[in-house]
Amino acid sequence: MLNVAIVGPGLVGSALIEQLVAHSQSPRFASLPIAVVGIINSKKMAVSSTPFAVGDLGEWKSKILGDSASAADLGQFAEKVSALKGPTAVVDCTSSDTIAELYPHWLSKGLHIVTPNKKAFSGDISLFRNIQKLTTPQGPSVYHEATVGAGLPVLSTLNDLVRTGDKIIKIEGIFSGTLSYLFNNFSVPGATQKFSECVGVAKASGYTEPDPRDDLNGMDVARKVTILGRVAGQELSLDTLPVENIVPDALRSVASADEFMTRLPEFDEHFKKLNDEALASGSVLRYVGMVDGIGNQSSVKLARYSLDHPFASLKGSDNIIAFTTERFTNPLIVQGAGAGAAVTAFGIFADLIKVCERFGVCSA
C-alpha cells in the first residue's frame, strides 16, 4: 500500500482526491493500492494510520478537515506521515516557495514527493541540486511531471531522450494555455479582435490569472523552460534566462488588475502593428519558450512562425512542445491540454503510479 498525504487540497488537490476515489471503486484497485492517509490545508490537518474511508474522502472538507481536525502544522504533519507503516508520498499541490524548500527535509525522512509545484525545480539551483542528491534509486523519489504541461508527457519524454543518450538540440514550445489562447485568437489571418478584447475574453473565461499581467510577463513560461533545461542537464536560471515581458512598460506598475484592463486598449495599436507585420510576412505571432541544447540562446519571447508551422495551426488553449534531437531531426511533438485541474491531477496520479511500480508496492 502506498500512503498518500496531500498538501494544499485546492482545485488540483480536490480533483486528485476525486480521481483517487473514483479509481478506488474500480476493479483495478486491487492491483494499484493507493490510499489517502493525510490532508492539510492552510488551517486544518488530519493524519490517519489507516486509509480514510471513501465516503469521508468524498466529503473531505467536512468529514476529514471539519471541526475535529487539528490545527495545521507542516512540521507535525511531516512527522506523523513519515511515522506511518509502509511507503508514503507527499503530494504538494501548492505553488509555495516555502513548502518547496521543505522537500530536502521530507526526503531525508524517507518521504517520496509528487508535485505540480514548479518552485523547487526552477528556483535556486542549489535547492534543485540538493533534491537531486537526496533522490537515489534505492531511496525516496521525486516526480514532477505536472510542473510542465500538466498531464502531458513532457518531462517523461525528455527523461527518456536523456537516459537513452540522445543529444538535445532544441526544445521549443508554447507552454502557457493563456498565451496560447490569446495569440491563437489574436494572431490568425482574418481575425478582427483587438488585443485588449482577446485579453478581456480570456480573463472572463477564467483562462488568465486574476491579474493577467502574471501571464503576460512570461515568468510562468520561464519557469517551465528552466525546468526543462535543468532536466536536460543545463544550469539554466531565471536570473539569466532572457524573458520578454509583453506587458506595456506604462502598465507594469499600475495598482490593480482592473486599472490594467481599463488602460490596456491604449496599447492595441502597438499589438496590431506587431501582428500586421507578422501577417504581411506570411507568419503569425506566438509566445514561446526555447531551450537551446547546443548553444547559449535559451529564451522566452514573442516570435513569428510561418503559417505552415505546427505552432501556427494550434487551436484553443493547447500546449505544444517540439523536441529536436540528434535522433529526432524531424521534431518529436507533444500536444494537448496543458492546464486545468483535471489534467494536472491526472499527471500527479500517473506519477503516484510510478512510485508504486518503482518500489514494488503494486503492479499496473
Your description of this structure?
With 364 residues, the protein is α/β, with parallel strands linked by helices. 39% of the residues lie in helices and 18% in strands. The chain has 16 helices and 12 strands. The chain has helices at 11-24, 54-58, 60-63, 74-82, 97-100, 103-108, 119-122, 125-134, 154-163, 177-186, 195-204, 213-216, 219-231, 257-263, 268-280, 341-358; strands spanning 2-7, 34-40, 44-47, 70-71, 88-92, 112-114, 142-143, 168-174, 283-292, 299-306, 319-325, 332-336. The chain has a 7-stranded mixed β-sheet with strand order 4-3-2-1-5-6-7, sandwiched between helices. A 5-stranded antiparallel β-sheet has the order 10-9-8-11-12. Strand 2 (34-40) and strand 3 (44-47) form a beta hairpin. The protein is globular, with a radius of gyration of 22 Å. It starts with a strand and ends in a 6-residue tail after the last helix. The relative contact order is 0.15. The model has no long low-confidence stretch (mean pLDDT 94). NADPH binds at residues 94, 118. Pathway: Amino-acid biosynthesis; L-threonine biosynthesis; L-threonine from L-aspartate: step 3/5; Amino-acid biosynthesis; L-methionine biosynthesis via de novo pathway; L-homoserine from L-aspartate: step 3/3. Residues 8-144 form the Aspartate/homoserine dehydrogenase NAD-binding domain.
Compile the SSE list and pairings.
Layout: E1 2-7, H1 11-24, E2 34-40, E3 44-47, H2 54-58, H3 60-63, E4 70-71, H4 74-82, E5 88-92, H5 97-100, H6 103-108, E6 112-114, H7 119-122, H8 125-134, E7 142-143, H9 154-163, E8 168-174, H10 177-186, H11 195-204, H12 213-216, H13 219-231, H14 257-263, H15 268-280, E9 283-292, E10 299-306, E11 319-325, E12 332-336, H16 341-358
Parallel strand pairs: 1-2, 1-5, 5-6, 6-7
Antiparallel strand pairs: 2-3, 3-4, 8-9, 8-11, 9-10, 11-12
Helix pairs in contact: 1-16, 10-11
